[in-house]
Amino acid sequence: MQLATLLIGLVSATALWSGVQALNAQARISYDRAAATFGGARTAMLVGRDDTSFPQALFVDLRRAGWPVSPVLEGRIQIGGRSFRLLGIEPVTLPGEVGNAPTVGRSGLQSFVTPPGEMLVAPEVLADLNLQEGARPSTSSGTLLPPLRVQPQLAPGVLVVDIGIAQQLMNMPDQVSRLLIGKAKGPRAALEAVAGDRLRLVEPDAESDLERLTDSFHLNLTAFGLLSFVVGLFIVNSAIGLAFEQRRPMLRTLRACGVSARMLNAVLVIELVALALIAGIIGLVCGYVIAASLLPDVAASLRGLYGAQIPGQLTLRGEWWIAGLAISVLGALAAAAASLTKAARLPVLVAAQPQAWQQAQQRWLMVQSAVALAVFASAGFLLLYGDSLVSGFAVLAALLLAAALLLPAILERVLSLGQRSARRPLAVWFWADSRQQLSGLSLALMALLLALAVNVGVGTMVESFSRTFVGWLDGRLAADVYVNAKDDAQATAIKAWLRGRAEVDAILPGGRADAQFRGAPIEILGLPDHTTYSEHWPLLESSANPWVRLRPGDATLISEQLSRRLKLGIGDRIEVPTPGGNWPLEIVGVYADYGNPKGQIAVNYAALTRRFPGIPATRFGLQVAPPKIPALLSALREKFDLGDRSLADQATMKAESKRIFNRTFAVTAALNTFTLGVAGIALLTSLLTLSNSRLPQLAPLWAIGITRRRLAAIELTKTLSVALITALLALPLGLAVAWCLIAVVNVKAFGWRLPFHVFPQQLLELLGVAMAASLLAALLPVLKLARMQPASLIKIFADER
Amino acid sequence: MNASRTISRRAFAGGLALLGLGGGAVRAQGFAGLGENAEGFAAVVPGRTFAFPADHGPHPEFRIEWWYVTANLRDASGAAYGAQWTLFRQATRAGAQAQGWANQQIWMGHAAVTSANTHRYTEAFARGGVDQAGVDIRPFHAWIDAWEMRGGEAMRDAMLAPLDLKASGADFSYALRLDAERPLVLQGNAGYSRKSERGQASYYYSQPFFNASGRITIGDKPVEVTGLAWLDREWSSQPLGPDQTGWDWFSLHLNSGEKLMLYRLRQQDGRSDLFGNWIAPDGRSIEIASADNSITPIVMTDVAGRKVPTAWRVAIPARGLAIETTALNAKSWMGTSFPYWEGPISFTGSHAGLGYLEMTGY
Amino acid sequence: MVYWAIPARALKEASNPLGIATGNPIVLSVRNLTKTYRSAGEQVAVLRGVNLDIAAGERVALTGESGSGKSTLLHLIAGLDAADGGEIKLADADVAGLSDAGRAELRRDRLGLVFQQFNLIPSLSVQDNLAFQSRIAGRHDAAWHAELVDRLGLGALLKRYPEQLSGGQQQRVAIGRALATKPLLLLADEPTGNLDEATADDVLALTRDLVTRTGCGFLMVTHSERLAATLDRRIHLHAGLIA
């Protein structure tokens, strides 16, 4: 029995931990792919002073001054309505360490550089575009692209072409976005002597942009993994405690027979390590299964939140297996430390205790509470002075740890109050015994507290987000019908046709341009000057009359993410690169743009088309009286052969957005459930352990004349009441966690802050789930007790303890 | 033999291997696809009249071309050094020159310095069309990145002198001034250099009479040096036969003031052809072609995981020449993208002097 | 406190000079009691028809070699286990015929049990342990409680917890708890087995006195001839039968 428990504990600890590690590793591999894509942040580079493009003559000048630089031109193009990052590279000068390009000496250089060249893509892109290798897609604006060639190392979402071809496609002749600096050494002229102040040096960064962006997500996963691991170790701890408890007489006998403590310990450790290895292997297999089944959701989350592309195939390295086994063994040893120490110090004879259990417990509680207060203090300190994602998570961790440490003290206080108020002897015993059980149950209860609090916290956060998101969608999706025509010609035809339809109240043109802004891609949204927007579009903050201010084309609204990331606010001025030169804009408003991995700004539509003459005018919205929408949709569909991707009503768009939203939090939900499950197992194993060591305490009560059934009922009530107290404590803690997630972690991780809501029904549900889990966990040992044969109870009186 | 690793020098190294046409197809056609047919490129035919300074500049209608300088130098204490400076050009396709990045030329530079116990080298690559590398005629200027060979206003076209030569790598650099008093020498038959019995050939002229002086820096120790230098200019569209696997190429400064250019093209079947020119101190160049001429390896050295002959016996009975050559540094291996052996040598026997040896295909 | 002055043997002879049941009412009557255990596939007849009577105030030692069925007999009488055949009457209650709950009630209200391992409730103080059974049985008598505390010499230990007590002290608490309900019958299974000789004599003397004071029957399983000799009567169990 304790063998099974031990294995369950180790397996679940190793499984969740290594599952999460596998997911993280998988994502890291993808980021590496992305980062290795020709000058991500891993390479030192030179960029324009204001992050705009600069003439390639500077590249030549620098080369001739001894700089081992290679030019890159970056931009975005749309294929089939999807936006891709287009990278123009120069393979001949590309530093070897930067990327796997068709460089000198490798095959494919000539076909890559010779017009029409080739467009290197990840296999995923081919699948996404539903094209074969060698096909030549066109951009959404009709430009024919080079034939596609697959290069597996590439990150999905990136298209790589020769720089000359990129300059042509982006209509940026002789322009480059940045210069990658190779590692080659040699004498070189000072940068200023060659380029004046036009370029600045960006040192390489060990972390890629994607890694930085997705840090929060992985930290989140890791936190869950760690939580599960710790909870799993609680299980192991109680299993080993039980095993030790059961073997104590044998150990004592062995010691009495002259086996040294050292020898005994060595044997115990060897046995434990062997078990941990077995459990580790099973755990790794389970971890693989968990990771594989979560991967699609993780990929969806990462794409939804950050636009990071993770392939759906899990690849594992040898290190992962070794690390998994190591963590299993180390975890088992850590969990066994207390029992092993006890075994090592096991006295051959039993001596009377110098101290009452109460005093010992009191001292233990005092120490633990003092530590808890110190941790609380550090959480407060971090909250006040921390300003990073890590500090946000540290606040969370400190909060949870402190609360967990404080839990036994709080329970003890509640139980002793109960004991004081109790009059009937069984009630007194009920409370007193619960108190005494605390030290045995506290780890499991702490696990329950943590799992519940995290569940409450994450649940509240997700639900808050969901509410906010839905409300925001209502304002944001202001038009009734959305049309995305195949090309400008079709758009013109559709608009002409729509003008003749009486039910169409307004045609709202929309446009979107992509640009690089301060080193990252942003979207520029064109909004028509129409009451639909000025009345419904939700703004978080704005100057007076923001919609009027937008009209002249010298003002912009910016998304909350962009505003937080670049610390931009109302009244700040920015310059956005456009084909016709930089576009100075004043910020007149900030709006929420939930779920968008990219920064966004919104400008007047007319102004946008002036600055970006090439953008397709294929997207527009319609104002239509709601009852007439279905008829209009089917008419449009029929007349212009528009598919679902080209035509949608507001309801469909909302449903789609919510679906994506839900997918985004699927992993969180899954891990939440796992964690709660593991906490349930921890409680079960703790109770099983206790139920065995408690028989000698219950048997006298039975002998005195309390029926087994009654004893079982009391035991059940006892477990449920401490679980209930714990769960009730978990609710405020969970809300604190939710607040921390919403006000600290989310802001750092995603760039948006949500209003904080409390959802009583959700809390009640979780309370119910927690109690159900506790009931399930308590039921098995209690049933065992209720059905125990008198002979087994009698044995207690005969056996030595 | 992998084509992309056996390429090289004086070589046709700038060759198609630059474009990564490695693989079986190429192997079947001599090194690095140098044996490919020359369709669309200008053909090398006998009887060309060379015109300077125009011919100092690039001939983009031909597939490959190079500007190649080697120098045998000594410092004040008499210690010997060698220096190499090479600029290769290769066209990836025939036809009118495309503009900008679409330009079909690829440039490659090799630079090296050698002493008795050190050999340092580096390489550079550039695409044509954007001025990262190229050759201007007037004033004469050949460059890739920060390396250059520059003729000032004072340069005389017929002598291609004086020139300032500069190159640097991570751990060495040099700056040399080359000057000569004698005109350029046409190699082969009046500049038409035959490379096989089947008509493969190149246009080839040299300036073997350079005196060199300047400074070599190895690590952070600069030394002032003087000595002799030799410039080769060669261009072609299909210089090698498909079955030719490598060559051994000598450029020798005899103490008599005479110069000897001699090379052997090795064939797959083990046979080899020996070509060369004997250049009198006044610059007269006479093709030497005789079945009695021979070069024989006498010492093999393990270098970079292969056996390379670093000492040779050279015999040209008609000129009374019978010498043995020794490498200044047997480990003069150019571990560039297309590796080969190239380094300074000295020789004794019937004649004595200094020179350079290049060996490819080992 | 005249009892203290009377030597044990004198007391024994005074109350039961002939070593037979006195005229007091019979509190325990066992007839033809049989019990068989299955052990390693074999039926082992532990009790093969035991007959036994104990009168109120009578103090009986039950001896026998290991495995003779002493403890089994005691457990059956206590209703901790069910007999295979025969009859156990505690006053007028038929123990064998009672349900599990009924037997528990019987133990709670009418019996006092003392074991070798003391079996106190570790989470409760001495005071609460003492009063535990009498309170749940609804038979708490404050005066009797106080007298027990006094006689057992536990006055200074009331606030302590069992683990802080010596073996002798713990067993005194156990005896006090068992007698607090003023049971009909006190059953003890090797109550001094874990105690040294002096403490054992001390504890047993106290027990004898208290039994007499309570007027209940007392059946003590022991393997000690010496201790057995201090009681009114001794019955020897051999091969499942009273010898």
Structure, described:
The complex is a heterotrimer of chains A (801), B (362) and C (243). Chain A is 60% helix and 14% strand. By secondary structure, chain A is α+β, with helices and mostly antiparallel strands. The radius of gyration of chain A is 32 Å and the shape is elongated. Chain A starts with a helix and ends with a helix. The mean pLDDT of chain A is 79. The N terminus of chain B is likely disordered. Chain B has two helices and 23 strands. In chain B, 57% of the residues are buried. In chain B, strands 1, 2, 3, 4, 5, 6, 7, 8, 9, 10, 11, 12 and 13 form a 13-stranded antiparallel beta sheet that branches. In chain B, strands 14, 15, 16, 17, 18, 19, 20, 21, 22 and 23 form a ten-stranded antiparallel beta sheet that branches. In chain C, the strands form two sheets. Chain C has a six-stranded mixed beta sheet with strand order 6-7-8-3-9-10, with helices on both faces. Chain C has a four-stranded antiparallel beta sheet with strand order 2-1-4-5, covered by helices on one side. Chain C is globular, with a radius of gyration of 17 Å. Chain C is an alpha/beta fold. Chains in contact: A-B, A-C. Chains A and B meet through α2, α3 and α5 of A and β4 of B.
What tags apply to this protein structure?
heterotrimer; A: 801 residues; alpha+beta; 10-stranded mixed beta sheet; 8-stranded mixed beta sheet; 23 helices; 60% helix; C: 243 residues; alpha/beta; 6-stranded mixed beta sheet; 4-stranded antiparallel beta sheet; 8 helices; 10 strands; globular
Give the class of chain A from helix and strand content and strand pairing: alpha+beta
Helix content of chain C: 25-40%
| Class computed from helices, strands and strand pairing of chain C | alpha/beta
> In which range does the helix fraction of chain A lie?
55-70%
End-to-end separation of chain A in angstroms reads: 20 Å
Q: What kind of sheet is the major sheet of chain A?
A: 10 strands, mixed
Total DSSP helices of chain A: 23
**Topology pattern of chain C, helix = H, strand = E:** HEEEHEEHEHHHEHEHEE
Cα gyration radius of chain A (Å): 32 Å
Could you give the count of β-strands of chain C?
10
Strand order of the largest sheet of chain C: 6-7-8-3-9-10
Q: For the CA atoms, what is the radius of gyration of chain C?
A: 17 Å
> Beta fraction of the residues of chain A?
5-15%
Largest sheet of chain C: 6 strands, mixed
Unreliable spans of chain A are: none
Broad shape of chain C: globular
Most extensive chain contact? A-C, 38 and 40 residues
